[in-house]
Design a protein that fits this description.
It comes from Terrabacter terrae. This protein is an all-alpha fold. The chain has 11 helices and no strands.
Amino acid sequence: MSVDQRTAPLLVLGGVVSVQFGAALAATLVPRIGAPGSVLLRLLFAMVILCLVARPSWRGHRRSDWGTVALFGLALAAMNTSFYASLAHLPIGVAVTVEFLGPLGLAAAASRRARDLVAVAAAALGVVLVSGVLHTSLAQLDLVGVGFAALAGVMWAAYIVLSQRTGRVFGGLDGLALALVVSTVVIAPFGLSSVDRWSARDVALGLGIAVLSSVLPYSLELMALRHLAQRVFGILLSLEPVVAALAGLVVLHQVLAGGQVAGMALVVLASAIVLGTQARPETPDAALGPG
């Protein structure tokens, strides 16, 4: 397929769809083997595939470079684990909407425009609507799920910053491949605690999640970002909560209330305003989320 300015948006949209449907599949795996086990399978398969493709060099790097990639790997592990933990408590559309405040807040923090601050305030209101806090008693409100999703958002922001720093000192796919090694090693002791519950179907599902949530979207965005205008990329990325809700409906039969849909629309609009005017990520993997 020839990639140009007309076809590049389709690749990014394909990556967004792939990530969120991968997350929906993960939501079916988490109840059986837990969030750490699900994350371990995803990261392990993604690491093996990416290391075989990238063949990263282990030599010629300074100690500070290894410190950067280690922090990147830790952020990657924490981001995915907290997000998958939120899926055990929240509909996927709600979880993605809440966590999207992370990259949105990071983008707004780098801006000095009043419009971006207003957009973030609108997104915060949207998250309040999506969470259901206005029409749900405190006893019924799943604060654990919202907390995990919010933590995933913070880790997503850290992931973006560390991804950019890693891209400056490691060429090509090397930095991401090495970060996946770190994150897999870190999560392994927690994920392996559920290995006695793993079935062949679970392992196969983990492979599918790794391809849908990591390998495929990264490859698509890697090709697209060479040709894509920054505003188009930001607007397409802002569609993630909507695609997540669609994936939740199709795969998990999760239906959101009208107020939650309205809140999601606010977050998408705010994200399109803020992210659509930001500079293109320095490295393509900076755009990838934890879905």
